[in-house]
Design a protein that fits this description.
This protein is α/β, with parallel strands linked by helices. The protein folds into 3 domains: 164 residues, 3-Layer(aba) Sandwich (Rossmann fold), CATH 3.40.50; 187 residues, Rossmann fold (3-Layer(aba) Sandwich), CATH 3.40.50.1980; 35 residues, no CATH class. Helices cover 47% and strands 16% of the residues. The protein has 17 helices and 14 strands. The chain has a 6-stranded parallel sheet, with helices on both faces. Strands 6-5-4-7-8 form a 5-stranded parallel sheet, sandwiched between helices. A 3-stranded antiparallel sheet has the order 2-3-14, with no helix packed on it. Helix 5 runs parallel beside helix 6.
Length: 431
C-alpha cells in the first residue's frame, strides 16, 4: 500500500514527486480563463449557468445568497455538543491570530523628520470554503479568524451547494457563530471570478482567501492583480521525519490522516531506521482496513505516499527542507533540537503527541498553508494578510535643504532631471 524506497530509488521517487508540481491538468487553465471572461462579461447570468452545469444546482439571483435566517436556524438546530466544540475552536484560533495584529507607528527622528507606517485593515474580503468530497467548517474558521482579528469591514463567503440548493448546515452554523452575514451558495472558478469582478448579486472584494480544488486555485492565480489572493494552494501534504524512537502506530495514523483528504494528497515518511520503516508500513496496512475512505486512501498512498530511507538525521532534515512540506511532523527523540534546522515548512508539529489533526481543528495556528513546495516563499494564512500598509514620510524644510544635493545627485545619475528639480525648486524657494 505504501512503498519503502532505499538508496538510489529515493532520488527516483523524489524526481517523480517534484515533477507533479510542474504538471498541468490538460486544458484546466484555458477552461478557467474562459469562465473568468464570461463571468466578467455576463455577471450573475454566467455564475448561475456554470453552477447549474457543474453542480446541478438551479439557482436564481434571488436564491444565490443564503438568508441570515437560514444561518441562524442552522445554528439553532446544530447538535449542542458539536456547537460547543465549534465555539471553543473559534476561541482558540481567534486568540492565536489576535496576537499578531500589526500596529501603526510613527518615529520622530529629529530635525522635523517623521517616518512611520500605517497598518490599515482591508475593506472587504472574500473567503472560499470548499465542498465536494467533504464539508469543511474548519476551513471557514481558519479563513475568517485572521480577517476578523484584523478588523476587516466586510467578509463575504462563497461555498458550493448541492443540487437541492442546500449548503452544509454545519458550515451555516459555523458562519453564524463567527458573525458572518453574507454567504453565497456558489463554488468553483465562477465564484472566484464573481468575487474578483463583482456581479449584480455578489460584491467585488479586495482579496480572496481560502483553499479549493484545481479550478479554484487556477482561478485565483489568473485573477491575482485584479484582487489580492492569499496563496495558490495545491493538494495537501505531510512529511514526517522520524528516528528509531518513533511510535510506528502514531506515524502510520498521521500518514493515513493526510491521505484521506484527496487522491492527490501526499504522505511521506523520512527515516534512517529500517526497523521503523517496516513497522510503519505494516501499521498503515493494518489501520487502513478499519477506515471508511479506502478508495481515496489507496490511490493517494499508491501514487504519492512513500517511506524514504535516509543515511541519518541530517539527510532526513535536508530532504524535509528540500521538499518544503505543508505539514512537517518531527517524531524524534529530541524534536526541539531539530527545530532550528528546519527552514521550509508550513506548519511544524513537534513530538508524538502533536498530530496534524490538532493543527487542523484546535490548537490555534492556521491550517491554510503553503503547498507544492511554496513554503520556500509563502507563509501560513495570517492576520497580516488582511492588512495593507502605507508608509508615512514627513520632512521639514531644514531636513530637505540639508540633504537636497545628495538626493538630486542620485536622481540625475538615473537621468531623471525632473526628480532632481522637484527637490532643487524647494531649496531655491527657501534660500
Amino acid at each position: 500500500m505504501i512503498s519503502i524506497y532505499r538508496n538510489g530509488a529515493v532520488e527516483e521517487f523524489i524526481a517523480r514527486y517534484e515533477s507533479r508540481r510542474t504538471q498541468t491538468a490538460g486544458d484546466v487553465e484555458a477552461r478557467v480563463a474562459g469562465i473568468i471572461a464570461d463571468v466578467r462579461e455576463r455577471g450573475d447570468e454566467a455564475v448561475l449557468e456554470y453552477t447549474r452545469r457543474f453542480d446541478g444546482a438551479v439557482l436564481t439571483p434571488a436564491t444565490l445568497a443564503v438568508p441570515a435566517g437560514e444561518m441562524e436556524r442552522a445554528h439553532t438546530e446544530c447538535d449542542g455538543a458539536l456547537l460547543e466544540v465549534i465555539r471553543e475552536a473559534i476561541g482558540n484560533i481567534m486568540a492565536f491570530h489576535r496576537k499578531s495584529v500589526p500596529r501603526s507607528w510613527l518615529d520622530w527622528e529629529g530635525d522635523g523628520v517623521v517616518l512611520g507606517q500605517r497598518a490599515i485593515p482591508l475593506e472587504r474580503v472574500g473567503l472560499y470554503v470548499p465542498g465536494g468530497r467533504a464539508a469543511y467548517p474548519s476551513s471557514l474558521i481558519m479563513a475568517a479568524a485572521p480577517a476578523i482579528a484584523a478588523g476587516v469591514s466586510e467578509i463575504v463567503v462563497v461555498t458550493p451547494c448541492g443540487a437541492d440548493l442546500q449548503v452544509n448546515p454545519v458550515i451555516l452554523a459555523t458562519a453564524f457563530a463567527l458573525g458572518i452575514t453574507r454567504l453565497f451558495r456558489v463554488g468553483g472558478s465562477q465564484a472566484i471570478a464573481a468575487l474578483a469582478f463583482g456581479t449584480e448579486s455578489i460584491p467585488r472584494v479586495d482579496k480572496i482567501a481560502g483553499p479549493g480544488n484545481i479550478y479554484v486555485a487556477t482561478a485565483k492565480k489568473l485573477l491575482f492583480g485584479q484582487c489580492g489572493i492569499d496563496m495558490v494552494a495545491g493538494p495537501s501534504e505531510v512529511l514526517i521525519v522520524a528516528d528509531e524512537s518513533a511510535e510506528p502506530g502514531f506515524v502510520a495514523a498521521d500518514l493515513l490522516a493526510q491521505a484521506e483528504h484527496d487522491p492527490l494528497a501526499s504522505s511521506l515518511l523520512v527515516t534512517d531506521s529500517e526497523t521503523l520503516a517496516q513497522a510503519v508500513q505494516e501499521e498503515v496496512s493494518a489501520q487502513y482496513s478499519a477506515l471508511r475512505r479506502q478508495e481515496i486512501l489507496s490511490r493517494s498512498l499508491a501514487d504519492y505516499g512513500a517511506i524514504l530511507l535516509s543515511s541519518g538525521l541530517e539527510e532526513s532534515i535536508a530532504l524535509a527542507n528540500r521538499l518544503a512540506p505543508e505539514h512537517l511532523g518531527l517524531h524524534l527523540r529530541d524534536p526541539w533540537n531539530a527545530l532550528g534546522r528546519i527552514r521550509t515548512a508550513g506548519a511544524i508539529f513537534l513530538g508524538p503527541y502533536s498530530p496534524e489533526t490538532v493543527g487542523d481543528y484546535w490548537a490555534g495556528p492556521n491550517h491554510i498553508l503553503p503547498t507544492n513546495g511554496t513554503g520556500r516563499y509563502f507563509s501560513p494564512l495570517r492576520t497580516e494578510d488582511f492588512f495593507k500598509f502605507s508608509s508615512v514620510i514627513a520632512w521639514s524644510c531644514e531636513a530637505l535643504v540639508r540633504h537636497a544635493d545628495k538626493i538630486a545627485r542620485f536622481a540625475l545619475a538615473e537621468g531623471l532631471d525632473a526628480h532632481a528639480q522637484a527637490v532643487t525648486k524647494r531649496v531655491q524657494k527657501n534660500g
